[in-house]
Design brief:
The structure holds 2 protein chains of 2 kinds. Chain A has 4 helices and 1 strand; from the N terminus they run βαααα. Chain A is mostly helical. The N terminus of chain B is likely disordered. The chains are: A mainly alpha, B mainly alpha.
């Protein structure tokens, strides 16, 4: 039977010397907090979906996009360790992601799903 | 930031000081970002342009549809599958932590059921991934029974293509996890194997973040 990892002082703050980087990872406690935050945001997302007045409001889509972006960033930073990893990995991820999101926005403008209201 | 030369595994030092395999998985994930964004773009561009039902969030009544059709997306079921996938990311990081800390004081020595057991967390992640696939199979089957196939309308074509590609990625991830579990059972994963678990974990978390985007853009935003 394995020991309870919670009893270890800093169980997850291991050095990644085997992969060529030296950095610290979040602790078990942080991992569990991250999971809790992700769950709470998901619950809020689904909850607002069932509020007709909010769905009709202008805040609905931006609120969902912000919550989704926060969840995305939390997973990438803490679970994928990009917050702690080498900046080359960050560039390899953020670079293509930025190009992809920019292309998506341009396409939505091109096909009339987004419009700049100049008048 | 502190970096050192690559250690161990019989690989020569690299010019970046980083293991090529980890650079490769991040480059792969970057390219996958572009793939999934193209599929999401296609879905969004054709959103609301289906001529006939079923529709995702709206009912379809005659004469537009031959028979009355209710909105097809089942948010409670998809919310449950989303929660399952989010929890699989937690078990995946715990599996990685278990491998990299194996043998340290206060950690398990390879048993199955302790909280420091990599086998337990790898198995849990694979089971959660398989559960997500079960939800997806249920969803696809019920959609087909309700009259929505990949050929029915623009929504069906783009929806099945996007979620089908994601499901295929989850399937690959589950097989990858089961392979790691088999290695762990056969010879035991040790701290020197951290990188191979880390690479699979990155892939798994990427599959999770793609679903975070799909859940909001496809299922929740009307």
């Amino acid at each position: 039977m394995a020991h309870d990892p919670h009893s270890h002082p800093e169980p997850s703050q291991a050095d990644h010397t085997t992969m060529g980087e030296v950095h610290e990872h979040p602790t078990w406690k942080q991992y569990k907090w991250v999971a809790l935050i992700l769950t709470v945001i998901t619950v809020i997302e689904v909850w607002v979906y069932y509020i007709p007045a909010f769905v009709e409001s202008r805040l609905f889509v931006p609120a969902l996009l912000i919550m989704s972006a926060v969840k995305f960033a939390i997973v990438v930073m803490f679970y994928m360790h990009l917050k702690y990893d080498h900046k080359l990995f960050r560039a390899l991820f953020v670079g293509p992601l930025s190009i992809a999101i920019l292309t998506l926005i341009v396409l939505l403008f091109l096909f009339g799903h987004l419009a700049i209201n100049a008048g | 930031m502190a970096t050192t030369a690559v250690v161990g595994h019989g690989h020569p030092p690299t010019t970046t000081g980083l293991d090529h395999r980890k650079v490769a998985i991040w480059a792969f994930i970057g390219s996958e970002c572009m793939l999934f964004t193209s599929l999401i773009s296609t879905y969004l561009i054709y959103k609301g342009r289906s001529v006939t039902g079923p529709f995702p969030h709206e009912a379809c009544n005659p004469p537009q549809c031959a028979t009355a059709l209710k909105p097809i997306l089942d948010i409670p079921v998809t919310s449950a599958s989303t929660f399952v996938l989010l929890m699989s990311s937690l078990t995946m990081v715990l599996a990685l932590a278990a491998v990299e800390n194996k043998g340290k004081p206060g950690w398990g020595q390879g048993g199955w059921w302790g909280l420091g057991s990599s086998k337990l967390w790898l198995l849990a992640t694979a089971i959660l991934g398989a559960t997500f696939l079960g939800f997806q199979a249920y969803e696809f089957t019920s959609f087909v029974h309700e009259g929505l196939t990949i050929r029915t309308n623009l929504f069906g074509s783009t929806f099945f293509t996007l979620t089908g590609f994601h499901g295929a990625h989850v399937t690959v991830g589950v097989l990858w996890l089961l392979t790691l579990l088999a290695i762990d059972i056969r010879r035991g994963l040790r701290p020197k194997d951290t990188l191979i678990v880390d690479i699979s974990a990155l892939y798994w978390h990427f599959v999770d973040v793609v679903w975070i985007a799909i859940f909001t853009l496809v299922y929740l935003i009307r």
